[in-house]
């Protein structure tokens, strides 16, 4: 008990705990632990760029601005401060300045794997996958990490370099064989690769294994749902999403799940249930633009006003399925990984 009491006030221990919680996908606990570090020592800069990423993932602009200002005032020669500022500008949609500030961070610390990874994420959001892949590769060269492999896989898939994506996913397995994120990458890469039936079956196997290790992980779940829809196994897709809605505790994920369930119902031409779940998604998160778009398309279908006929939603789903490969800054399918 005495040791635990000491550790609760140990800045190095708490900072390490924060990063472990992030890797495990417990983002709320990680953010609370980072806040505890800041409460105990406002001069701590170590790992604060990762704290900034937690704010960026939930669009907390005010918190990012405050943290960036504090870090720059503490020491403007530390890369973490400039990474934080870059994330603030990315959150504001200013990727040009975000890239400039992340390059400043890299110039201050050329061995910052996290800075290179952040650069890759910004470039990926700018639809520049070739340059993004190089940044993720450099991040991984400095420190091998599943998150870096995730960026590489997404970058390769965006360029339709399927062989490279599969190789990167398999490398992730060699680094972290029991990490559900690694298994997910294999499943995602195989699911998106134009291949014979065996490839899709291997993708499902990898995704199911990832879910057995982490039943609440969204990315393998969403990818598996897409595979079921492609097979027209709507019952399996709907059951999987309903179980997730019932069991996922993170309320910030519920709108995505309801939106996805509505997509499946629309594809299955169960428009009444689709309408219910789109409305639920929008009510939970008015900024869920995919749910808004799905709702608009559904209303056209229900009114019979769709100029392309009732099969238009299949084209929409094809486009969405292709886009779901990416982590959407990991943040729609993944909101990170979860």
UniProtKB/TrEMBL annotation:
Residues 314-338 are annotated as: Disordered. Gene3D superfamilies: Tetratricopeptide repeat domain. Residues 1-16 form the signal peptide. The keyword Repeat applies. TPR repeats lie at residues 79-112, 255-288. GO terms for cellular component: anaphase-promoting complex. The keyword Membrane does not apply. GO terms for biological process: cell division; positive regulation of mitotic metaphase/anaphase transition; protein ubiquitination. It comes from the Eukaryota. InterPro entries: TPR-like_helical_dom_sf, TPR_2, TPR_rpt. Keywords: Repeat, Signal, TPR repeat. This is Uncharacterized protein.
């Amino acid at each position: 008990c005495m040791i635990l009491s000491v550790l609760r006030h140990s800045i190095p221990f708490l900072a390490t705990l924060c990063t472990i919680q992030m890797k495990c996908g417990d983002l709320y606990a990680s953010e609370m632990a980072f806040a505890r570090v800041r409460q105990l020592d406002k001069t701590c800069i170590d790992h604060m760029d990762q704290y900034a990423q937690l704010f960026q993932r939930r669009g907390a602009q005010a918190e990012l601005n405050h943290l960036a200002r504090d870090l720059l005032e503490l020491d403007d020669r530390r890369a973490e401060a400039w990474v934080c500022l870059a994330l603030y500008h990315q959150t504001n949609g200013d990727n040009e300045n975000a890239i400039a500030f992340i390059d400043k961070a890299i110039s201050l610390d050329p061995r910052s794997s996290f800075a290179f990874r952040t650069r890759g994420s910004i470039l990926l959001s700018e639809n520049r996958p070739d340059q993004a892949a190089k940044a993720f590769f450099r991040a991984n060269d400095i420190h091998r990490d599943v998150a870096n492999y995730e960026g590489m896989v997404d970058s390769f898939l965006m360029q339709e370099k399927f062989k490279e994506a599969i190789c990167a996913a398999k490398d992730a397995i060699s680094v972290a064989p029991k990490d559900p994120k690694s298994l997910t990458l294999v499943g995602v890469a195989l699911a998106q690769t134009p291949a014979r039936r065996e490839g899709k079956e291997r993708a499902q196997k990898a995704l199911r294994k990832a879910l057995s290790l982490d039943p609440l992980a969204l990315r393998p779940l969403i990818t598996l749902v897409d595979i079921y829809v492609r097979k027209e196994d709507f019952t399996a897709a709907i059951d999987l999403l309903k179980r997730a809605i019932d069991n996922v505790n993170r309320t910030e994920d519920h709108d995505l799940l309801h939106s996805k369930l509505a997509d499946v119902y629309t594809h299955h031409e169960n428009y009444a249930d689709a309408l219910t779940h789109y409305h639920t998604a929008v009510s939970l998160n008015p900024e869920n633009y995919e749910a808004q778009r799905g709702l608009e398309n559904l209303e056209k279908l229900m009114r019979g006003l769709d100029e392309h006929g009732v099969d238009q939603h299949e084209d929409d789903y094809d486009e969405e399925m292709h886009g779901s490969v990416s982590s959407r800054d990991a943040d729609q399918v993944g909101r990170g990984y979860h």
